[in-house]
Amino acid sequence: MIDKDNRIKLLEKIIENLNNWDGNIESAIDLAEKNNEILEEIRQNNTIENVDSSLYEKKLIEAIEQLRDFISSLNSSRDLLLEENKQLNLKDKVLKNYITQVDDTVFIDKDIL
């Protein structure tokens, strides 16, 4: 069984990890894995009799808010990347259409005839 102090320390570690995140997508994967391991440890050892700690509940609420901000940031980054990808695809389509038109177009010099 995990004691209350250890649960609070684990939650504080999650909060610390989230506060130290540099905002980079690549580091977000590592951060999510680390925090998932900590959450799994809390989840496996959580018992109903230890749930009444007000400090634990405060840390839990703080961790949940930090995780929501983290997920929101990731969703924003994902949306931005999808939009950039869509713009790149549009530019590629325009370029391909232009090149296709140039290849099919024939110019006749009237002075030669």
Describe the structure.
With 113 residues, this protein is mainly alpha-helical. The chain has one domain. Helices cover 78% and strands 0% of the residues. The chain is built from 3 helices and no strands. The chain has helices spanning 4-19, 25-45, 54-104. Helix 1 (4-19) packs antiparallel against helix 2 (25-45) and helix 1 packs parallel to helix 3 (54-104). The mean pLDDT is 80.
Question: What descriptive keywords fit this protein?
Answer:
113 residues; 78% helix; single chain; mainly alpha
List the helices and strands and how they pair.
Layout: H1 4-19, H2 25-45, H3 54-104
Helix pairs in contact: 1-2, 1-3
Query: What structural class results from the helix and strand content?
Result: mainly alpha
Main sheet, how many strands, which sense, barrel? none
Question: What portion of residues is helical?
Answer: over 70%
Low-confidence segments, ≥5 residues, pLDDT <50? none
Number of strands: 0
Report the end-to-end length measured between terminal Cα atoms: 96 Å
Shape: rod-shaped
Mean pLDDT: 80
Brief sketch in words of this structure:
This protein has 113 residues and is mainly alpha-helical. The protein contains 3 helices and no strands.
